[in-house]
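Readers of this paper often ask what the protein records in our data store actually look like. An entry from our holdings is shown next, in its original layout:
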Amino acid sequence: MNRIALFFKGVCMGLADIVPGVSGGTMALILGIYTEFIDSIKGLHLRWVKPLLRWLTGGRKQEDWDALKAELGTLNLPFLITLGGGILVALGIGSMVIPTLMAEYPVQMRAFFFGLILASVWVPLRMIQTGKGPKLAGVILAAVLGAGFGFVVTNPGNTFEITREWTEVTSEGETLEHLARRAPSAIPTDAIYWSPKNEALRESMAASEPEVATKLDTLHHGEGKIDETDKKALKARAEPYNEIMVPAGVSVQVPRPAYWYVFAAGAVAISAMLLPGISGSYILLILGAYFFILNALKGFIKTLLGGAIPVAQAGYVVVFLAGVSIGILTFARILSYLLHKFPAYTLSALVGLMIGCLRGIWPFRSQIEGVVVNVWPSAMSGPVVSALVTFVVGMLIVGTLTWLGSANEDEETAKATS
């Protein structure tokens, strides 16, 4: 495969991973590299370490060097490095652009990705060898199950209550945001402030900064329920609380999940990222672990940059990354096995999953009795027209990419043949 084309496919995957509700797995499937992507991850191993150590410590013998090259040759490194480079570039650039677009033009951006994903369903669909009789029934059943799973998972009302251990953290005269990262906390700053366990914090604020306390009280009682899997809305709600200065010596109760839950969340989230249609960060939100992982990572980095040892955060970061590593290697092997052993059924389930997960990026939303729900637009307004335009643009982009990637069609179709 042309390395330049592969690099830009990595860019597309990286951009997709930034968008809430969209995954890099979706883009890999659209671009015709999904099977090779999964197989390349599955093929990762550490057998090359032993000959490397022998070569470094044993006088750099030719036979050890040949053994090292032989082991490295079993890894699809050119593919992974080129694709990974594109993903990293996209994450760096896209993280400065796409979140802003999602915040400023949420309806239009969701419509764009809705059109992009809907049009892309045709890519894996044409790769499926449906057959007749029982096989056709199995293909249909797999698609229905995939769609049902995706539809349920992307329901904003589905969040898990996790087991948390509340820990007392004494303020060092810092913002509530800094304290939440130092702890680290499993919930955002607004939830910390209004927790029944933190009455002492609210009393302290009322005494030291009564105007701020009154403003927060007014804001709190005027808030309606928001989508608990909407990162932008959650972030906007927490902003006024981030800058609260917690007086030194004030004790704040902060919740943390169990280590086993952090490990499981990392494994499940990274596995979800390998599937088309499901975003890893979206899964972390559903599992109730998103803010904890974010606080732990940010606190870890900021503490290191400050020249201190991030003791409180290090254990959680290591456990989370261990879950990610084991999850991606294990799930990639399962997916690779299914794609090669039962290609028609697996691709059918993935197509169904893509369709079911469209619920999570439906462009038009409203609040009904305090709950965020998907709605059908009632009138042909300006935002609706612009959403239709971006929807069509998304579909046209997929059509163009499909045409450009036609050279790989025979290879990918052969992989899907049962």
User: Anything to note?
Assistant: Residues 311-341 form the longest helix (31 residues). The radius of gyration is 24 Å. The beta strands are 164-170, 174-175, 245-246, 251-257, 365-368, 371-374.
